[in-house]
Every structure is written in structure tokens, then in C-alpha cells.
Amino acid sequence: MLLFTSLSPSPSREQAQKDAISTWRATGHVPVAVQHPSDDVSAYGEMNVVILRTENTTPLGRKNYVRLDAILKLANEICLGRIGIINADCALTCGQNHIETIADPKALSIFSRTDVDPDGENPKVFPWGFDLFVMDPALMAPLVPGSSMALGLPWWDYMLPMAAINNSIPVMRHDNILRHVRHEERYEYAGYLMQASAIERALGISHNSRHTILPIINHNTTLVHHD
Predict the structure, then answer these.
(1) Residue 1: which of 113, 93, 133, 111 has the closest Cα?
(2) Phi/psi at 184 (nearest 5 deg)?
């Protein structure tokens, strides 16, 4: 299965991303990085990462963040069958073909990460978002509206499950196969607010009702919409 991501070109993130990618390879997956033309990701050539380029990005500060709808469009054009979209610094801790076995082909499968300290201690499931999605892009690509939702910026990980819920597609949550080393948040609060407004517009959520209609997430079961 192809795992789509978008790499940070920052040298400070290189080792963490290489460590994560090596686990994707070890579990039988092919890493595909979608990058802005200006991103220098030549350091990943040794990792046998497929590099695709797009100008469909959200600029913020000095960075261009690749949009979710751009990744889905590319995946739908080149893939037959299911794909994954994963944050670049999340390592897989499962065996080969495990994801394909537990992910329902007719649903959107979402995976929460387990955060650990740099020494590997203090593991805790991260409760505020998702870091791996498995889906048929032919099913999901038409449902995700074009917007500024982009990998590496806040709120993008809620776009897929909410789009699925709005179109009566089952959403299944799984834990315990993603490991992520804790680090400081790298986005500014202004970006957080900007993206919160963007997902409201894209999904037709009013500002006053945002906190009442976002989904309740049950572990290892169907995602339940809260009316």
C-alpha cells in the first residue's frame, strides 16, 4: 500500500522523518511524499521515497504546506485500491499487512498516535487528532472540498472524518500502531485560528456550533456524530 505524506524540508526534522519512513518500508509500504517545487528533500533519496510535486499549497510564513485535496487528487489519479495518508514523523509499530487487515475497505479508517518522550518512556495516546488515514481515494477524493486544509497545519486531520460523516461513510478509529516522539508545537496561534475558520467554511459549520457538532470519537469503533 502507498503511504502518502508531506515531508518537512527542515534539517531539524530529517532524522525523525527518516526513522519513521524506515518503519513504513519495514511493514511493506511504499512512501510517497508530495512536496512544493521549492522544497529541498534530496536528503531522502537514500530512503527510496517517491517524490511528487504540486503547487496546490497553503503558504504560511516562509513555508508552503501541501493541501489535503491535492494529495487526494494525486492519489486518485495514480492508485487503484486503498492508500494511506500519514504524518511524516509517525512510526509504524505493527507487522506487515496489519493495517490492510484491520482497515475496512468500505470505510475511512483513522489512527491515533501514541506519544512518547525522546527516551521512549511515558507513552500516551494523543487524544486531539489523527495521524494516519486509510481509504479508497476514489471514494474520499470527491467528498473533500478544496480548502486551505494542509498537512503540517492544524485541523486538517478533522477534514476527512467529518467529510465521511457528512456523506454517511463509516469511520473506524484504531490506536496502538503509531509511535510519535513528543516535541514542541510548531505552529502559531494565528495559524490555528485561520485554519479553524477554514474548516468551518469548507464543511458548512457555523462558528457558534463548532464545538457541539464535531464528532465524539469512540476508541476502536465507529465514529459517532454528536447532534
Answers:
(1) 133
(2) -65, 145
Residues ≥6 apart with Cβ < 8 Å to 166: 143, 203
Report the C-alpha gap between 133 and 109 in whole angstroms.
6
pLDDT digits (tens, 9 = 90+) for 103-145: 998 999 999 999 999 999 999 999 888 999 999 999 999 988 7
Return the closest-CA partner of residue 5 out of 74, 65, 83, 88.
88
DSSP element (H, E) containing 170: none
For residue 124, list its beta bridge partners.
115
- Rounded Cα distance, 111 and 131, in Å: 6
Residues whose CB falls within 8 Å of the CB of residue 12, separated by 6 or more in sequence, listed in order: none
Q: Helix (H, G, I), strand (E, B), or coil: what is residue 76?
A: helix
Reported pTM: 0.89
Q: Cβ neighbours of residue 195 under 8 Å, at least 6 residues apart?
A: 148, 149, 153, 154, 155, 156
Tell me which residue has cell 454517511. 168
- How far apart are alpha carbons 155 and 148 in whole angstroms? 10
